[in-house]
């Protein structure tokens, strides 16, 4: 599952400041506002802000809180810190995640990938090879065949969710070996480690123990 704090969603239509001001005037006159689509966005000047109220009052919420949206430009498919791996959806809901080496933290060829419904994301899928998966779920829709996914990837919504010169290939096939199958990410280890260490100048942190280990498929030594 992609693990990412929510970002402002992408746009099918955009509300610029002058249009927003016009709509706010409608609100003051108690006229209904048009609904922003799921793939819509506010376009606001630097330093601008807005407040929203659904008409319901909750005690203890008298003071407004500030929410900060950060740039999503640095989010990469191959960054292992952005993924959670679980055995089942129940484990996902409970936050019961599996430990994996860095290569296998990025979705493997027999994995089902889930982008949670009602969340927004913009991820770089730049890759010299096709990204091989079993299936991928986006906005509540599960894709298991390449033709249907390829059609979706041409849509405006997909262009606001994925960027970079990369493509997906779906197998809809389970691992045939009960003892487990090869992940298939070994060829992308350099890309995975570069994404993992992008904010540290490509340098691994110094382990706190005297005799650290470096498992096969891991980028750095661990205790």
What does this 3D model show about the protein?
With 223 residues, the chain is an alpha/beta fold. It has a domain at 80-196. It is built from six helices and nine strands. The chain has helices spanning 17-28, 89-94, 102-105, 146-153, 156-159, 189-196, and strands at residues 14-15, 41-42, 112-114, 123-124, 131-133, 135-138, 141-143, 162-163, 168-170. Strands 3-6-7 form a three-stranded mixed β-sheet. Strand 6 (135-138) and strand 7 (141-143) form a beta hairpin. Mean pLDDT is 80; it is low at 5-18.
Which keywords apply here?
223 residues; 19% helix; three-stranded mixed β-sheet; two-stranded parallel ribbon; alpha/beta; single chain
Distance between the termini: 26 Å
Mean of residue pLDDT values? 80
Low-confidence stretches: 5-18
- Count the E strands: 9
In angstroms, what is the radius of gyration? Answer: 21 Å
**Strand-residue proportion:** 5-15%
Order of helices and strands: EHEHHEEEEEHHEEH
| Helix-strand makeup class | alpha/beta
Q: What is the general shape? A: globular
Roughly how much helix do the residues carry, as a percent range?
Answer: 10-25%
Number of helices: 6
Strand order of the largest sheet: 3-6-7
* Major sheet summary line: 3 strands, mixed
Topology, element by element:
Blueprint: E1 14-15, H1 17-28, E2 41-42, H2 89-94, H3 102-105, E3 112-114, E4 123-124, E5 131-133, E6 135-138, E7 141-143, H4 146-153, H5 156-159, E8 162-163, E9 168-170, H6 189-196
Parallel strand pairs: 1-2, 3-6, 4-8, 5-9
Antiparallel strand pairs: 6-7
């Amino acid at each position: 599952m992609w693990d990412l704090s929510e970002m402002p969603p992408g746009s099918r239509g955009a509300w610029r400041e002058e249009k927003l001001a016009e709509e706010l005037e409608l609100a003051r006159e108690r006229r209904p506002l048009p609904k922003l689509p799921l793939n819509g966005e506010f376009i606001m000047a630097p330093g601008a802000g807005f407040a929203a109220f659904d008409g319901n009052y909750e005690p203890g919420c008298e003071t407004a809180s500030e929410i900060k949206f950060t740039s999503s430009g640095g989010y990469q498919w191959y960054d292992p810190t952005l993924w959670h791996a679980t055995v089942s959806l129940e484990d996902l809901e409970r936050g019961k995640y599996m430990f994996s080496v860095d290569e296998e933290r990025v979705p493997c060829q027999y994995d089902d990938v889930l982008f949670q419904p009602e969340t927004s994301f913009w991820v770089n899928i730049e890759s010299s090879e096709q990204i091989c998966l079993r299936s991928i779920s986006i906005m509540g829709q599960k894709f298991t065949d390449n033709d249907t996914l390829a059609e979706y990837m041409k849509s405006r919504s997909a262009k606001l969710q994925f960027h970079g010169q990369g493509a997906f290939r779906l197998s809809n096939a389970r691992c045939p070996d009960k003892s487990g199958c090869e992940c298939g990410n070994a060829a992308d280890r350099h890309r995975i480690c570069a994404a993992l260490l992008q904010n540290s100048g490509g340098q691994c942190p110094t382990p706190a123990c005297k005799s650290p280990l470096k498992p096969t498929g891991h980028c750095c030594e661990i205790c």
